[in-house]
Amino acid sequence: MARPKSIQTGTILEAARKVFMRDGYQACTARIAREAGVSEGSLFKHFKSKANLFLAAMEVEAGGTAWEERLMAGVGKGDPRKALESAGIHLLEQLRLTLPRLMMVNASGVTIPNHDLPGEIPHPIQKMEVLSRYFTAETRAGRLAMASPRIQAHLFLGALAHYAWCETLFGYRSATPAVYVKTLVDTLLRAAVTLKKREAPK
Amino acid sequence: MARPKSIQTGTILEAARKVFMRDGYQACTARIAREAGVSEGSLFKHFKSKANLFLAAMEVEAGGTAWEERLMAGVGKGDPRKALESAGIHLLEQLRLTLPRLMMVNASGVTIPNHDLPGEIPHPIQKMEVLSRYFTAETRAGRLAMASPRIQAHLFLGALAHYAWCETLFGYRSATPAVYVKTLVDTLLRAAVTLKKREAPK
Amino acid sequence: MARPKSIQTGTILEAARKVFMRDGYQACTARIAREAGVSEGSLFKHFKSKANLFLAAMEVEAGGTAWEERLMAGVGKGDPRKALESAGIHLLEQLRLTLPRLMMVNASGVTIPNHDLPGEIPHPIQKMEVLSRYFTAETRAGRLAMASPRIQAHLFLGALAHYAWCETLFGYRSATPAVYVKTLVDTLLRAAVTLKKREAPK
Amino acid sequence: MARPKSIQTGTILEAARKVFMRDGYQACTARIAREAGVSEGSLFKHFKSKANLFLAAMEVEAGGTAWEERLMAGVGKGDPRKALESAGIHLLEQLRLTLPRLMMVNASGVTIPNHDLPGEIPHPIQKMEVLSRYFTAETRAGRLAMASPRIQAHLFLGALAHYAWCETLFGYRSATPAVYVKTLVDTLLRAAVTLKKREAPK
DNA sequence: GATGAATGAGCCTTCATTCAT
DNA sequence: AATGAATGAAGGCTCATTCAT
């Protein structure tokens, strides 16, 4: 039996993340190795190439689909406002992690190997789909009135994403996350409810 | 009396933009020079360094403030829906140019020399301010009812930005720009109007 | 545990010396690397920059101070002629190494980092001081008669330095080193002795 | 008739000298042009190449042969001490100009085109020859007693050269030029005279 | 003749990657 | 498995030189 691995992949990834986030993709591997407390050789034993390491470091685990299930489970019952707010908070949290990395990858010029993500739909869009399904379902259930759920979903996620974006890029916040999400949900629902109210009398 | 200038700075910037957007900041200057049909030496005669060229290429002229004036001029008169849609279309157009470049700069690891942008407020946030002022003004004029105009502005711009973002990153569009903006404005106004209607009876 | 060092710093320095002496400071590092049988990258691993390498290559170890001690030890005893000839031969040998390098450094335009030689007195002048002290001591001992030992020291070293200089620059020798030194010492001593003889009768 | 030359070659040479002396051969032509108040193009109209300009700038006009003639004219008559001191002062003056430039050229790695100086004997050596002839002549005339005039000449010039050298390189002076030369001549003559005196009694 | 814009070869230096322990 | 010495390809940048007025 050879000697056991004494280097944690996680340690490397953490260091890589930190350095890449600070210096961009042109951060040099030597610095990452130093920051991780590991020899440069080991870096390349654990990850075939710098690009690989970069992608691995920028990868963000899906974060579970619990929120999706919770959201969809609430269709037809409970308070949509609460359901949406809960989902919004969760999404915002996740976007704060996801977006900067996505941005890094996109700006790095590194071409993502297709065989790793075979035709996979990018996360942000997947999320939009989920929201869209929710809106559609509630509309069908007669609890919301939305003319174009898909666009509304885009809009919803967009507002969240932009919040995260402004925060990481400029350190700007128009409100706390909670308030922001609340206002967002409120706006959407008001618009949806109105539609319903108006249509109802007819 | 000397040889006349035969290289347009614009030509270089265009090429640089193209290459940087494709390959990231690590695009090599040789390629940019070739793409611009210019010698590498000339690149550095026109821009002191690669970083300088990069920033110049990513810089996006404000694009005029006509839309701001038009928007604010409409306060109290005319149809807010039309005013917002017009502004929205314009902003979306601009964001499609601005955002990717902003992202590039941020992810490049190039530190922006402070003396160039002395405490300047980043464009996207400036725009949010304008929108916020508009919402506030219309609310004061009694034509809209918004509890927190600043957040609504954030939300409005966020939806637009995310549209541009999804388009450039994933080639995804939930709708045409016109329809998207229309829906966005509609949502906002419905929510705002509702508020007004409800309060009115009281 | 890691790959053992296989490059001797001395090997690089030797090659650098050879090339720099032939081509001047503008010798290219690639050639030095080739001449040393080493990759260009290794050059810069061992010496931070070309200037560093250059200075290190031109640096000439003091060569010991044995001659100084021997010279000063002979004050008052033994034959001054022999002592001076021995010192002269030694100095000439050393100057042949030192002067060309000193010249190179001075003409290279490379600014020597101060922290390396903090106010250090340049070698040739140090040597002049030693000689000066010797002449003074022997004069005090009544074995030589020199009106201005310091100038005589300058003169002595000057004659040696110029011999080395003419040899390296023009390949010119008015005599073999031994004969040259002998004549030089003879000239100095004759002048010194004369003085004594003349004064003695008084 | 074309327009008359309005650029003085002398102006360029002066500037070149200044810059080359400060920065070594790697001084860039642009700076020389600027310092000379001339366009870079003009530099190359006046001198085929940088190396040419460099050599021209480092070239030092012979400075006349008046001193030689004066020296040789004094053979057999007048005070040798005065003649040698006068020649020494003159030579020292000239060496102060010559040596640094010679050093520059030698360290530059620029190979002097042979067809420009076809087999020409370098100045310092020419001078040694003149001195050597003088010493020989005076010895023949019975006014000096030198066993090896050529070596003594080397020694004489060497002492002068080293003075100039120490001055330019280290800013070191053991005495004023006048005193230094005086001491040098004194030393040589004492040695020579002694010889004569001693031999005479025999 | 004088200018300075344009050029492109070449150089120093970095850095991802490999290799010998 | 881990190390860090060694590598060499590549890139940013300079600068001598040419060219079009």
Largest interface: A-B, 52 and 52 residues
- As residue ranges, the low-confidence spans of chain A are 198-202
Overall radius of gyration of chain A = 21 Å
Oligomer: homotetramer
Helix content percent band of chain A: 55-70%
Largest sheet report of chain A: none
Spell the H/E element sequence of chain A: HHHHHHHHH
Mean pLDDT of chain A: 88
Instruction: Note the beta-strand portion of chain A.
Output: under 5%
- Helices of chain A, by number, come to 9
Provide the structure class of chain A.
Answer: mainly alpha
How far apart the termini of chain A lie comes to 79 Å
Silhouette of chain A? elongated
- In total, the number of strands of chain A is 0
Plain-language structure description:
The structure is a homotetramer. Chain A has helices spanning about 10-25, 30-35, 40-45, 50-60, 65-75, 80-110, 125-140, 150-170, 175-200. Chain A is mainly alpha-helical and about 200 residues long. The interface between A and B is large, with 52 and 52 residues. Chain B binds a DNA duplex (21 and 21 nucleotides) through α3.
Provide a brief overview of the structure.
Chain A contains nine helices and no strands. The first copy, chain A, has 202 residues and is mainly alpha-helical. In chain A, helix 1 crosses helix 4.
Question: Tags for this entry?
Answer:
homotetramer, 202 residues, mainly alpha, 69% helix, DNA-binding
